[in-house]
Write a structure and sequence with these properties.
The complex is a heterodimer. Chain A is an alpha/beta fold. Helix content of chain A is about 25%, strand content about 25%. In chain A, strands 10-7-6-18-29 form a five-stranded parallel sheet. In chain A, helix 5 runs antiparallel to helix 17. The radius of gyration of chain A is 31 Å and the shape is globular. Chain B has a domain of about 90 residues: Alpha-helical ferredoxin (Fumarate Reductase Iron-sulfur Protein, Chain B, domain 2). Chain B contains seven helices and no strands. By secondary structure, chain B is mostly helical. Chain B is globular and about 50 Å long. The chains are: A alpha/beta, B mainly alpha.
Chain lengths: ~650, ~130
């Protein structure tokens, strides 16, 4: 026979201020299975835990109910305490009489009645609980990092340096990401290439890191400790090992195309190319869409001149299957499409450019070799307008603040004044958000040292007149309209995450703005809701290089926490199948969000390690063959009975 | 019963009144100035649209006397471009309605010059509005 002990916590005045705890103790003692009930000021304190342990021994209790806060707070505490007194942890349950009762009710009379019902119902559940053991599974000591930008690079290096294998998947021909495109970085103004390329080289030579470029993750199954991943590797047509970057192929290639990706359509390249000299892996790549050689006609000029025989025009796509223990998602961002902001004339006016184009224009590795020339006629722009919050903080476009634009615009204006000392830089802003370390100081330096003209007001429209662009704005501080003729306009575009496809493949949620949803916005910012999948960089929310790197290291340490274990322990609250009832209809296998149910000739089978105990299959099973451990229908009905029962209601005082 | 805030002088919350009449919450405005920058009538206005909205935010009754609310052509350029999705033209219309409903101005048709030259429909409309 079950012997239940009930422990009611006051939580100082948090619970006892509203709920009559003595009354609760008195009432639940009437439950036929309750052998012992008591209350205490703080059950979670050492003294409180001791009370529980002693009662278990003294009364020979077989189940425990602690009526206190949310089980999210202290269930582990009480389970551990009961375990050391010899009780199975799954014979401990909590009734939440704080968050779901005393904090939300004011009337003590009603709150006390509700508390009695909640505790009574939990007692009814706990007597049906089975003693369970945690599910154990092995860990594959390998980590998958999706995205080879600065966040992915940092995460890969951290995991690899801890002695674990890393698979780094990048969809473009080189790692480096957006940071490789930048000229200099705020607030210290070190050149982006100078600080990024050493890290890229470290990744390239690291024995624990395997890089897959031109590759995408197309399928992920399994769960923490053992994810089965399928990667599609597109053909590069050039052997990475053999290519010695002699550039002979590039010289003979007859096909000239616009360099849309790395140089953002500001210059041209050949169909066989390297995105930039320090690309990793250091090898040429053929742009199959534009090459004459990989289609039906075969130009083969490059093949003829390649002394290394590195070019293979018959290269094909490859599907790679790997198993990993943890996954880090760092898929980065794109700029918000400028075409969507028609009033700024992007696409119509050549000299209206976006922030990444400006980065390329002033980068020493860029199409102009670091000399600032405007795209339309190659003249040096003598007056430039920098417009902030383009797309960001705009309910018609992106409701959020993109966080980096204030700082990079300040940097742009500063660098512009260095390149063109007699030029004029105007910054149109709404607010300046410089909340990072040494950020405000940097803004101050830009405003004072470079005499950049900060004007508060959102630009309304841009029109072209001759070779000038006319910026229409209003100085909101003086209230005077501004009509400013400039030579070039730089739009500080908001950033949007590249997450849609990967979120579907990994089955992790995205938030209302398309960023990957973290488990908890404050206390678990790098974990996804699925165990073993971690988030880093802009994929999770707008952030600068500093924050991306910090988050990448955090994600890496979370991944290492899993990889360094010999086995994973999981809650045993999983679905179970009654094979005699199963009609093999397969509804459960299709609905399971974790791919944890598979169909066998004998009926449905639950993969305990993968099951998260969500109960979707249980609810859907038409023959009632599935049930959830310790949430059996009988228990649930007993709980509902207790919640609806007629109980003596305490007198109103 | 909805209180007629306007009648209770001294207790008027202009922003609430505007919300009641137009459904627009002026507190959404972060004063970026895009409405003023794009307004085709801006140079005729004494206060730019965002300034009028700010006056409503701080409950400044001067906004009702702004010439701008009558200069506004209701072209909706501001409403289309507002990053906080405020229908600025509608707010202007709300201010005009408050002013008209207060019946502060009246027209004595006997004193109107060139009465016979004016379109009769305009006189009827003016008479309805101001009497």
């Amino acid at each position: 026979m079950e012997r239940v002990g009930v422990f009611v916590c006051h939580c100082g005045r948090n619970i006892a201020g509203v709920v009559d705890v003595k009354k609760v103790v008195e009432e639940v003692k009437k439950h036929p299975f309750v052998f012992h009930a008591e209350d205490y000021k703080y059950m979670c304190s050492a003294v409180g835990q001791n009370l529980i342990q002693e009662a278990i021994k003294k009364y020979g209790l077989t189940s425990i109910v602690v009526a206190a806060c949310s089980p999210r707070m202290h269930l582990e505490t009480f389970r551990t305490a009961a375990m050391s007194a010899g009780l199975n942890p799954y014979k401990v349950e909590m009734a939440n009489i704080r968050e779901q009762n005393s904090w939300v009710h004011e009337d003590p009379h009603v709150a006390t009645e509700k508390a009695i019902r909640l505790v009574w119902s939990t007692i009814n559940k706990v007597i049906g609980n089975q003693p369970l053991k945690k599910v154990r599974s092995n860990v594959v000591k390998r980590c998958l990092v999706i995205g080879g930008g600065i966040a992915g690079i940092q995460a890969a290096l951290d995991v690899a340096n801890s002695g674990f294998e890393v698979i780094l998947v990048e969809k473009s021909p080189t790692i480096g990401g957006r940071m490789a495109q930048l000229s200099e970085t705020f607030p210290t103004l070190d050149c982006a290439q100078c600080i990024l390329t050493p890290k890229m080289a470290e990744v390239a030579r690291h024995p624990n890191i395997k890089i897959y470029t031109l590759s995408e993750v197309i399928e992920v199954n399994g769960s923490v400790g053992k994810f089965k991943v399928k990667i599609r590797k597109k053909p590069r047509y050039v052997d990475i090992e053999a290519c010695n970057m002699c550039s002979e192929c590039e010289k003979v290639c007859p096909q000239v195309v616009l360099d849309k990706d790395f140089n953002r359509s500001l210059t041209i390249r050949k169909a066989i190319y390297i995105p930039f000299p320090q690309a990793v892996p250091p090898a040429y790549v053929i742009d199959a869409e534009n090459c004459y050689g990989v289609g039906t006609t075969r130009c083969s000029e490059c093949v003829k001149v390649c002394e290394q025989n590195a070019i293979n025009l018959f290269d094909t796509e490859e599907i790679i299957e790997v198993e990993v223990g943890a996954i880090i998602v760092a898929t980065g961002y794109d700029l918000y499409p400028k075409e969507k902001i028609g009033e700024y004339g992007y696409g119509r006016y050549e000299d209206v450019i976006d922030s990444l184009q400006f980065e390329r224009l002033i980068a020493s590795t860029g199409p102009t070799g670091g000399e600032l020339r405007r795209p339309s006629d190659g003249k040096v722009p003598k007056r430039v307008a920098f417009i902030q919050c383009v797309g960001s903080r705009d309910l018609q476009h992106l409701p959020y603040c993109s966080r980096i634009c204030c700082m990079y615009t300040a940097k742009h204006a500063f660098l512009y004044k260095h390149l063109v000392p007699d030029g004029e830089a105007y910054v149109f802003y709404i607010d300046i958000r410089a909340g990072g370390k040494r950020y405000e100081e940097f803004i101050m330096r830009v405003q004072t040292e470079s005499k950049v003209r900060y004007t508060r007001g959102r630009v309304s429209k841009i029109v072209q007149k001759g070779d000038k662009l006319i910026v229409h704005a209003v100085d909101t501080i003086t209230g005077k309209p501004i009509t400013l003729p400039v030579d070039m306009v730089v739009l500080a575009m908001g950033i949007v995450p590249n997450t849609k496809e990967i979120a579907e493949i990994l089955r992790i949620p995205i938030d209302e703005n398309g960023f990957l949803q973290e488990l908890h916005p404050k206390l678990a910012p790098v974990e996804s809701p699925i165990k073993g999948i971690f988030l880093a960089g802009v994929a999770q929310g707008p952030k600068d290089i500093q924050d991306s790197v910090a988050q990448a290291s955090a994600a890496a340490s979370k991944a290492i926490e899993i990889l360094s274990k010999d086995y994973i322990e999981k809650e045993p609250l999983v679905a179970r199948v009654n094979k005699e009832l199963c009609s093999k209809c397969g509804v459960c296998t299709q609905l399971c969000p974790y791919n944890a149910v598979e169909m066998t000739p004998e009926g449905a089978k639950v993969i305990e390690v993968a099951c998260e105990g969500c109960g979707t299959c249980v609810a859907a099973c038409p023959s009632g063959a599935l049930s959830l451990a310790n949430y059996e229908p009988k228990q649930i009905f007993l709980m509902v009975d207790a919640l609806l029962m007629k109980i003596p209601i305490p007198e109103k005082s | 019963m909805a209180k007629n805030l306007w009648r209770e002088k001294g207790m008027v919350n202009l922003a609430e009144k505007i919300y009641e009449m137009t459904g627009e919450n002026v507190y959404l405005c972060y004063l970026c100035g895009k409405c003023g920058a794009g307004c085709p009538m801006a140079d005729k206005m004494d206060y730019l649209p965002y300034q009028v909205i700010h006056m409503i935010q701080i409950n400044d009754m001067e906004s009702l006397n702004a010439k701008s609310i009558w200069i506004c052509a209701t072209c909706f350029t501001c409403s289309v471009r507002c990053p906080r999705n405020l229908d600025v033209a509608r707010i202007m219309d709300g201010l005009r309605t408050i002013k008209v409903r207060a019946q502060e101005q009246t027209i004595d048709l006997r004193e109107v010059e060139d009465l016979d030259k004016l379109p009769p429909i305009a006189l009827v409309a003016a008479g309805r509005k101001y009497t």
